Amino acid sequence: MTMALSSALPSPLLLAASLLLLIVQAQGITRHYEFNVQMANATRLCNTKSMVTVNGQCPGPELVAREGDRVVIRVTNNVAHNISLHWHGVRQVRTGWADGPAYITQCPIQTGQSYVYNFTVAGQRGTLWWHAHISWLRATVYGALVILPKLGVPYPFPAPHKEVPVIFGEWWNADTEEVVNQAVQTGGGPNVSDAFTINGLPGPLYNCSAQDTFKLKVKPGKTYMLRLINAALNEELFFAVANHTLTVVEVDAVYVKPFTVDTLVISPGQTTNVLLTAKPYYPGANFYMSAAPYSTARPGTFGNTTVAGILEYENPAMSPSAASFVKGLPLFKPTLPQLNDTDFVTNFTDKLRSLATPEYPAAVPQSVDKRFFFTVGLGTLPCPANMTCQGPNNTQMAASMNNVSFVLPARALLQSHFTGLSSGVYAPDFPVAPLSPFNYTGTPPNNTNVKTGTKLLVLRYNTSVELVMQDTSILGIESHPLHLHGFNFFVIGQGFGNYDAVNDPAKFNLVDPVERNTVGVPAGGWVAIRFLADNPGVWFMHCHLEAHTTWGLRMAWLVLDGSHPNQKLLPPPSDLPKC
């Protein structure tokens, strides 16, 4: 639901309307949404299945709010699975109870139960998204979350003619819960998806799918803002529009210095706003909008297909009501990078810079209270007795940070912390650095086994943190998109090989680094981030490749309350789900 003020008010009401406008600008409004989690049938690739959705839609409903608004979403669970929803990238300052990751900030919503997510969008504007945050249900439970600037505040770039959400997803013919359960039981890698999708549609490059194609119709000379969201489970993606350039203006709901590219890369969890300016004349052609994976993993462990939508032009010589897609026109296809083109990815991410203007400053912590070093990568666990496992050398696949493969607790961490009943739920001793250093990107050690545990890293309120995340070569180097809940962070540096704590900091960008909530740890390299721990609560940090998260590539930060009342976690809502 959205509210709009009429511009055609009688003159006696103009003063009252102006006053109301000022109040709305200062305080925002409250927007209410009803999300019914329900099963719905969908047919893709000539395969029909019943799947979990919100309100029977996939993608689910688009949430729209303005900076400063309060958003209230009642979620009712009408399916057999437990559910929880995460509002990806929303800071949730002091409202961690609304963040959504199951067993971290809440117990999941059980069948037949409801929970109201209630939060204010403060100091943020741009494209975010929402998704299920339990098991692999986000495969079909996701949607756009668009935060408009405050009323009267323009974009820091020319206003587009139209704004269009473009959400990348994945389609499995199988039930994704069965896919992940089979992988966990066998200890091997999960089966890959059957197709990528754009706004839920696989498009003409897949079997039986030409009728299920996303089409964007444009007018010559007009500029369109594409709100790109990578909601795929396990794939980073290249994206391009044939014979058109894309001007990047925002990532993860933070404005960047605009730059223009033919192709971009976007990882699961990330958003990117781009301006696409249509050609000034009717081109007499159609153009593929294509996405295909970036991966350095072993072949067969990721879906290596291409999804396409179609960009088509309104023909001034035809009436607008004429058939939108003219058959027989030339169809141009973009050339995407090779699937393992890490150099392209590096060159693209190096271009990302904060605006760093008086209106939109880059508040990079210039001094650091705590420095941490995390290894991020794959590993193994011994195969249980009387079982055959499909991981390397009869092991179970695993993943870890600082060699700790995180085990989800049976009780939610945030409530355990808030009530002081944390004993037996978690330990506050996550390692601040690897306990056994090795040549992280060189020849891997013979012992690839990881430890398991539910460990948190505790921070005092307002601690300035520098974290270096280092990929490892254990079971092969891979890029890992790491998402931090509850905060944005600044990406101050990245490089390849092993991080050099003596020489690499001299290259850090502390002036205008990009600010975001999800960053790729480079394949065979490292990334350095800084953030201010000014949000009390328990905040999940994990790889946004769902297979790696399932294997344990996740941890959580516990940020303690500050001394002032407005620095303390608010008490839990009365309808907080119980485990």
Automatic annotation (TrEMBL):
Species assigned in the record: Oryza glaberrima
Keyword annotations from UniProtKB, A to Z: Apoplast, Copper, Lignin degradation, Metal-binding, Oxidoreductase, Repeat, Secreted, Signal
Chief location of this protein within or outside the cell: secreted
EC code: 1.10.3.2
Domain Plastocyanin-like: 36-150, 163-315, 437-561
Role this protein plays: Lignin degradation and detoxification of lignin-derived products.
Protein's UniProt keywords contain Cell cycle: no
Protein name per UniProt: Laccase
